[in-house]
Write a structure and sequence with these properties.
Blueprint (H helix, E strand, L loop, with lengths): L22 H13 L3 E2 H4 L5 H6 L2 E6 L3 E2 L9 E2 L9 H12 L3 E6 L10 H14 L4 E5 L7 H9 L4 E3 L9 H4 L5 H13 L3 E8 L5 H13 L4 E6 L16 H13 L4 E4 L16
Parallel strand pairs: 2-5, 3-4, 5-6, 6-7, 7-8, 8-9, 9-10
Antiparallel strand pairs: 1-2
Helix pairs in contact: 4-5, 5-6
């Protein structure tokens, strides 16, 4: 398959300098992940906040392998044909959370369109294992869209994590350009189903993909219509020249303005700054 030859990645401004995780914490977390053959989106997604989150007693685990069946134009996770799910992974994740002494955990996954249930049963087993072994730990799950299948999303809801997050990723106009297979309105229906269950619904978008201010405001309004309580906004950082290009680096003052706007619209929490990612300050969002 021929890769798209995008223009060179523009130079990052000063406010996008990434903090390097503390070496001791980084070594400890990575060592444990390797020994248990687990994955963190902190590493796979090159998250700039890994050190901060780990020092706060939270981490984001990526289940169902590290190969995604979709090829979203913004994402740095590998795409291809995944291996079968590891039946021991739910217990391994639960054990790792206990060994790391976490107070809060975030669980996400690659898309598994190759599986009949898109991985829902594996999701449920993971949530249940974590709850059983770590009864005092709060949990956010950052789920795929499960192709909008109500019964699959309901399985996650019935497992009762404190927060269920599903990212829109971008505004409606750009969805088909940036996301693979996923649809904007399908994602909104997933979030509405979560919110109607009484659990905290959360979503996020990236800025700098070519969206307009009006489209960002409309996205906020769409999320509030389905009673999404938490929203994150961060700067899109182009992983390679073959990914969707960065159209603009948004100044921190503009992010701060969107945070104020979101709170005025009724979100309980709005995390909005250039280096914000989905799980940033996730431990606080259980209070939404």
């Amino acid at each position: 398959m021929k890769m798209t030859d995008y223009s060179p990645i523009p130079r990052k401004p000063e406010w996008l300098k990434i903090k390097i995780p503390k070496a001791q914490v980084h070594k400890h977390v990575n060592g444990l992940m390797l020994s248990n053959r687990l994955h963190t989106i902190c590493e796979s997604g090159n998250c700039p906040n890994a050190g901060d989150c780990w020092s706060r007693g939270t981490a984001t685990f990526m289940i169902l392998g590290d190969i995604c069946t979709r090829a979203c134009k913004f994402c740095n996770v590998k795409t291809g044909r995944p291996l079968p799910p590891d039946p021991e992974e739910p217990q391994k994740v639960a054990e790792s959370i206990r060994q790391l002494g976490l107070r809060h955990c975030v669980i996400t996954s690659v898309d598994r369109d190759d599986l009949p249930d898109s991985g829902a049963a594996h999701w449920v087993a993971t949530i249940q294992s974590i709850k059983k072994l770590n009864p005092g730990v709060t949990m956010e799950v950052l789920i795929p869209d499960f192709d909008g299948k109500h019964e699959l999303v309901q399985q996650i809801i019935d497992a009762q994590p404190e927060v269920i997050s599903h990212n829109l990723e971008t505004v409606e106009r750009l969805t088909s350009q940036v996301r693979s297979r996923a649809k904007y309105r399908t994602s909104l229906k997933v979030l509405e189903q979560v919110a109607l269950s009484g659990l905290v619904a959360k979503s996020g978008i990236m800025l700098g993909l070519g969206e307009t201010r009006e489209e960002i405001v409309k996205t906020m309004d769409d999320l509030r219509v389905v009673n999404c309580k938490v929203m994150t906004l961060g700067q899109y950082l182009q992983p390679t020249r073959d990914h969707h290009p960065v159209k603009e680096y948004i100044h921190p003052d503009i992010f701060a303005e969107y945070e104020r706007m979101g709170l005025q619209k009724g979100f309980s929490f709005v995390e909005s700054s250039p280096l914000v990612r989905s799980s940033y300050k996730a431990d606080q969002h259980v209070n939404a």
